[in-house]
Specification:
CATH architecture of the largest domain: 3-Layer(aba) Sandwich
Shape: globular
Structural class: alpha/beta
Order of helices and strands: EHEHEHEHEHEEEEHEHHEEE
Strand content: 15-25%
Low-confidence stretches: none
CATH topology of the largest domain: Rossmann fold
Keywords: DNA-binding, Phosphoprotein, Transcription, Transcription regulation, Two-component regulatory system
Radius of gyration: 18 Å
CATH superfamily of the largest domain: Response regulator
Number of strands: 13
Protein name: Response regulator transcription factor
Number of domains: 2
Largest sheet: 5 strands, parallel
Pfam families: Response_reg, Trans_reg_C
Mean pLDDT: 85
Distance between the termini: 35 Å
Length: 232
C-alpha cells in the first residue's frame, strides 16, 4: 500500500483529498504545516507528496527544496498561483507536476496514479550503461545516475526521462511523445511542462547546459539524446 503525504493548511482540502485517495486504496498522512511535513518525510516511508504552496510557517517552495535534499519522492504541487512563471518555478525546484486550485479531486487522484505508475517503470535494457568513457553512468539496479563518479540527485520524472532517452539513443522525440512516455498518456497538463523538466535535467548532467553534449534540441521538432555509449 502506497503512502501519500498531503500537506495543506485547509482542513476541508485535507479531508476531501484524503477521502478520495483512501477510497482508491492509498494510505494517507496529513500535515498542515511545513514543519509537520518534514517530520513525516524523515520518519515515515512516504511514497508521494501532495504539497500546497501557501503554508502558514514556510512556503511550499521552501519545503519542496528541503524534500528534494532528502528524498526523490514524487511531488505534486497545489497552487492558487495561475501565472506560468510561478508554475515553472515550482517545476524547477523539483516538483513532478502541479494543479491549480480549485481542482477536481478525481483528476488529482488520476495524476497521483499516473505519476506513481511512471515512477515505477524503471526497466533499462542493461544493468548499467555508461557514456563518454564513464563520464555519465546510469545504474538500473540502484536506479541512480552518476556524473564523473558523483551521484546526481534526479527527481522521478528526470530519471524517467533519462531512461526513455537511454532506451532510444539518437532518436528525436517530439514534446507530445515525451509527455506520453515520461508524464503518461493520460497526462492532462500543459505540454510545455516537459521543457522545464528537460531544462532541469540538462543542468544536472551537462557540463555546460547551453552547449549540451547529451540532450540536444532539434529545432521545430523536440529533443534527442546523444553520447558515446559503452555497456558494462
Amino acid at each position: 500500500m502506497k503512502t501519500v503525504l498531503i500537506v495543506d493548511d485547509e482542513e476541508k482540502i485535507l479531508e476531501v483529498v484524503s477521502s478520495y485517495l483512501r477510497n482508491e486504496g492509498y494510505q494517507t498522512v496529513e500535515a498542515s504545516t511545513g514543519q509537520e511535513a518534514m517530520q513525516y518525510i524523515r520518519k515515515w516511508k512516504i511514497d508521494f507528496v501532495i504539497l500546497d504552496l501557501m503554508l502558514p510557517d514556510r512556503s511550499g517552495e521552501d519545503i519542496c527544496r528541503c524534500i528534494r535534499q532528502e528524498a526523490s519522492v514524487p511531488i505534486l504541487m497545489l497552487t492558487a498561483k495561475a501565472k506560468e512563471t510561478e508554475r515553472i518555478n515550482g517545476l524547477s525546484l523539483g516538483a513532478d507536476d502541479y494543479m491549480v486550485k480549485p481542482f477536481s479531486p478525481r483528476e488529482l487522484v488520476m495524476r497521483v496514479k499516473t505519476i506513481l505508475r511512471r515512477s515505477n517503470d524503471n526497466d533499462l535494457l542493461a544493468d548499467q550503461i555508461t557514456y563518454n568513457q564513464g563520464e555519465l553512468t546510469i545504474n538500473a539496479k540502484s536506479k541512480e545516475v552518476f556524473l564523473k563518479g558523483n551521484p546526481v540527485s534526479l527527481t522521478p520524472i528526470e530519471y524517467k526521462a533519462m531512461l526513455v532517452f537511454a532506451r532510444h539513443p539518437k532518436r528525436t522525440f517530439s514534446r507530445d511523445e515525451l509527455v506520453e512516455k515520461v508524464l503518461g498518456f493520460d497526462y492532462e497538463g500543459e505540454t510545455r511542462t516537459i521543457d522545464q523538466h528537460i531544462k532541469n535535467l540538462r543542468h544536472k548532467i551537462e557540463n555546460n547546459p547551453k552547449e549540451p553534449r547529451y540532450i540536444h534540441t532539434v529545432f521545430g521538432m523536440g529533443y534527442k539524446f546523444e553520447g558515446n555509449r559503452n555497456e558494462d
